[in-house]
Design a protein that fits this description.
By secondary structure, the protein is mainly α. Helices cover 60% and strands 4% of the residues. The chain has helices at residues 8-15, 19-28, 46-61, 66-75, 86-105, and strands at 35-36, 42-43. InterPro entries: DNA-bd_dom_put_sf, MerR-type_HTH_dom, MerR_fam.
């Protein structure tokens, strides 16, 4: 279910990254800069979620430091070697969250 904007809670569910970690990453990585609405709430776009999934992979899965992850993002070429593109991973995670929510309602 594609949307134009996602709340921090939705992004946290999709990416399985806690909201406080997302807020911290915003301070460290220039690539992650969600807009805020009139109420001051963060609004994430598809590109932001893809960046978060990339950061999660680098920092939590591959155990890069934040400085190392910044260097990899600046180079931008390591993502091309992946077997499953980040955008596909994001879509699959979003579908999983939707199905889990649907299952809870049954």
């Amino acid at each position: 279910m594609k949307k134009l904007y996602y709340s921090i809670g939705e992004v946290s569910d999709i990416t399985e990254v806690e909201a406080h970690v997302l807020r911290y990453w915003e301070t460290v990585f220039d690539e992650l800069n969600p807009q805020k609405n009139k109420a001051g709430n963060r609004t994430y776009k598809e590109e932001d979620i893809e960046t978060i999934l990339r950061l999660k992979e680098l920092i939590q899965d591959k155990k890069y430091s934040t400085e190392g992850a910044q260097q990899v993002l600046a180079q931008g070429d390591e993502q091309e070697n992946e077997t499953v593109p980040i955008s596909v991973k994001k879509d699959l995670k979003e579908i999983r969250v939707f199905l889990n929510n649907l299952l809870e309602k049954l």
